Amino acid sequence: MHRLLRGEVFMLGGFVVAAAATIVLVMPPSIDPAAAQWTETSSGPLTAADRDLLVKVRQAGLWEMPAGEYARTRAASQRVKEVGRLIMEDHQKLDLLTRQVAKKLGVALPDEPNPDQQRWMAQLASARGPAFDKDYANLLRAAHGKVFTVVAAVRSGTRNSEIRKFAQEGINYVMRHMSLLESTGLVDHSQLPEPPTPEPAPPVAMAVEKRRHS
Known about the structure:
Mean pLDDT: 84
Low-confidence stretches: 1-36
Radius of gyration: 27 Å
Structural class: mainly alpha
Number of helices: 8
Helix content: over 70%
Distance between the termini: 88 Å
Shape: globular
Largest sheet: 2 strands, antiparallel
Strand content: under 5%
Order of helices and strands: HHEEHHHHHH
């Protein structure tokens, strides 16, 4: 009886191993998680990065438009008031474009800023005069530096023609806003993130450069 049971267990184990091997052979290869997030559209593949760009630009406008209104009533410097107005008006145009592109591509957009942006808004709402001017210039300049890297990265690699055009517009707006904020003379560049450290040149490139200067 015991020998029969052991034989049955052995045969069952062999069957399980064979079945598992068969499943592995017939199952399709695993799907790349990044590729699974792509959506085909009439303007090309729409990736998670493309959708994230629309979301981030939308959220940027949701806090920078009210911040521009704060500048009108709270700033001491006439230049800060003017910069706030120009950035607010630009974001009104950019927000309309963002919503149009998102609707065309079927991307859901948020209706409120993210938690960090809400804190920045609260900080600006509690300040007046020169303190407001300094906070406004530095908070917005730091925020534009962050979003610029996102827009530029998507612009350089997106496969979607609608997103490519949108990202190009975004780059133009962000660069203009950084220059406007810096024109106030209040931006503390020492507090901005440092540029990434360049990677060491490969040995072949270094050898070519050495021969060129020898």
